[in-house]
Amino acid sequence: MEQQKPTWKFPKEFWLANFMELCERAAYYGFFIVLTLYLTNVVGFNDKETGVVAGVFFALLYLLPPFVGAISDKIGFKNGLILAFSLLTIGYTLLGIFHTKIPVLFFLTIVLIGGSFIKPLITGTVAKTSNEENKARAFSLFYWIVNIGSFTGKTVVPSIRQGIGLEYVNFFSAGMSFFALLFAIFFFKTFSTSNNGKTIADVFLSLRKIFSNPRLLVLTLIVSGFWIIQHQLYATMPKYVIRLQGEQAKPEWLANVNPLVVVLFVVLITQLFKKYKAITAMLIGMLIMPLSAFSMALSKTVEMNFGSSLNFLGIISTSPLTLMMIIGIALQGLAECFISPRFLEYFALQAPKGEEGVYMGFSHLHSFFSALAGFIMSGFLLDTYCPDPNTLPLGITEIQKMNYYAHAHYIWFYFAAIALSAAFALLIFYLVTKKSEQTKNTVNA
Question: Are residues 151 and 240 in the same domain?
């Protein structure tokens, strides 16, 4: 029987799911890039409290999907999407209206639950509306849609934040979620799902299996070092840039450098290094990551040596901070190209035969650990080296104010040290596991 050639033709539900994903990602990234600013500047949490709140929110957003995925299997994809987008629309809207601490925590929980449904529902739809021949193309399209949504949300948000107010970003996210909800209600058709879906108990059993695999758990914790730095794109960078450059700065646009680099280079890098072991490619990425954080820390040195404005060929003029942020964020994206695809590959290979799906459900467990650690650390570091202007003494001069931010760049030295430690830990992991495999092969020979 002749094998079918892969095509770019997919059912209507595939394109609808991807369109809804684009809306959701624009809403999510538009909201999340300014979340720490919103919690501090609008709600009134201090930097340390903001780090805890945002860290728990983001960590649970990566832990809950396997559990809510079990619920989605029971209620069906259409009902799940309607529930998810309804919760997101309600949560974002209420965050735009009410700005006191306790209600905001409750509304964030609504957004958290709604957002946790999206990933298993959309990826599940992509999987079910593609076949073995075109599944790779289906998920490559899905990946592009995710990054287009991310790019769009972060591009639009500065105009809203600077034009009518930071809190109104929530209404943009609510609008995008409501738009997706309408498509879920009126256009998305129900299709049959397996009755053999996992129960909540099955998911807990899967998590227990991950924790009983020492090699996989150690690697997950090591790779968390990479993601701690990656999360600073949302935890530290927005406040850091605005506090040093003023409200006219657009950290959201700087954050877009990351998805741009990933989209441009991930396929090329994956192809060039496909013959190398996953752990080797990951090690290259981990060695790039300290350079990312170190680059961000060098803005002060560049300014001292070249002045506060850098001119390139008389065409482009930028500040040292902006330039070093772009370089640092671009290096983050490059490191991600080496690490993310190959980590998923390595994670899948550690799964016992027939249990790949069970293991892959928790393949983003590293983001749970790294979000908690990264955001909480960010809160303390910002409070120490780049404090909230509203907490500074009244009546101080601009020169006195500058003294409070004289060592703001020290923040990135801490993260460079974490990244370097993670790279060193991965090297040790590689050498130990390599020796273990050689010993095993010798015994079996």
Answer: no
- Both 252 and 361 in one domain: the answer is yes
In a domain, 350, yes or no: yes
Any domain includes 327: yes
Q: Is 316 left (phi over 0), alpha (psi -120 to 50) or beta?
A: beta
CA-only gyration radius of the chain, Å: 23
Instruction: For residue 95, give its domain range.
Output: 11-197
SS3 160: helix
CA angle 145, 378, 26 (to 5 degrees): 20
- State the DSSP H helix or E strand holding residue 370, giving kind and residue range, or none if neither: helix 365-385
Q: How many domains does the chain have?
A: 2
Residue environment code for 175-204, b if the CB has 16+ CB neighbours within 10 A, otherwise e = bbbbbbbebbeeebeeeebeeeebeeeebe
Does residue 7 have a pLDDT over 80? no
Q: Flag whether 140 is in a domain.
A: yes
- 362/24 Cα distance (integer angstroms): 22
Q: Six-digit token pair at 61?
A: 């957003």
What's 314's DSSP letter?
T
Question: Smallest Cα–Cα separation from 188: which of 300, 280, 85?
Answer: 85
Task: State the Cα–Cα distance between residues 186 and 202, nearest whole angstrom.
Answer: 33
The H-or-E segment that residue 344 falls in is helix 320-349
pLDDT in tens, 250-270: 999 999 999 889 888 887 887
For helices 135-163 and 257-272, angle between their N-to-C axes, nearest 10 degrees = 160
Which of 171, 197, 223 marks a domain boundary?
A: 197
Asked if 34 and 138 sit in the same domain, the reply is: yes
Is 61 part of a structural domain of the chain?
A: yes
Find residue 215's DSSP bridge partners. Answer: none
Q: Are residues 137 and 64 in the same domain?
A: yes
Q: Would you state the pLDDT for residue 195? A: 46
Distance CA 375, CA 57 (A): 10
Q: If you search the block for the tokens 């256009």, which residue do you land on?
A: 187
Rounded Cα distance, 122 and 251, in Å: 29
Q: Is the pLDDT of residue 360 over 80?
A: no
Compute the distance between CA of residue 18 and CA of residue 184 in angstroms, rounded to an integer.
11
Is residue 6 over pLDDT 90? no
